Every structure is written in structure tokens, then in C-alpha cells.
Amino acid sequence: MELLIILLVLGVLLWIFGISLQTLLFGVLMLAAILLALMLLFFLFSAISLLFFRVKKGSFVRFNQHRRFAQAVYQVEDAEYVNLFPAEPVMQERLYHERPHTLLIRKGRYRNIAYDMHSVLIIALGLFATAAMLGMFFAVLSLFME
User: Cα–Cα distances in Å, from 130 out to 33, 38, 60?
Assistant: First the structure.
């Protein structure tokens, strides 16, 4: 929220100093394109990293509070694995239960990492949606550049 207010004040100051509204709007659109590209890179990196994980069965143990969000912890054989994505607060009783889950796991040097199937679905949908939004953004932008 504070960042939005700072950008708004900066935009008004630039407009007062003589920058045209068209140039300011173009800057806002480029900022949106950069944010979409960064989101696409995040989901692409996450999808590629899944290729190096092993598929195992594990059971949900508990939630760990990590900074501002909770993370699911799974027990696979004799080790605990932390899901990198935040725990979904809406459907916790349906997603996180004692029954075995199919997980993608990787033993790390500092901590063990897991992705449950819910996280894999988020990565796949995020990759598709972000790529589609970025493609539509440039398609619409090309219409205005003519």
C-alpha cells in the first residue's frame, strides 16, 4: 500500500514537472510488464526445479509459522519436509489431512523441501496464466503502437 502511494506521489510530481500523461501511462504499463515477466520467471524456475524432485508418499504432520505465513510440514520415511508454498488457509481440512499425500521431495543441505500436488497445480496454473497475460499485454500494446 505504501509503495502504491509513493508511486502515485512520484507520478503527480513528474506530471507537475512537465512529463506528459501519455509518457506516465506508458511507464506504468512498462512497470506492469516487468512485474508480469518477473512472475513468469518465478513460475518457470519453479516448474523447471520440479524436474529434480523425487516422487514419494508422505503424511501431513503440522504447520510451521514462517515469517508472515504458515507452511505445511510432511513426514516422509524418517525425515520432515517443508512445503515451500504457503499453506492454503481456506480448505485446510480438505488439503492437509493424515492420509498419505503424493509429494515431490528433495533433500537439501540446509532443509528438506517438498511440494504437494496443490503446489504443483499452483505452479502449472500460474505459469499458464502469467504467460497468457504477458502475451495478451504485448498483443494489446502492439495495437496501440500502430
Answer: 11, 10, 30
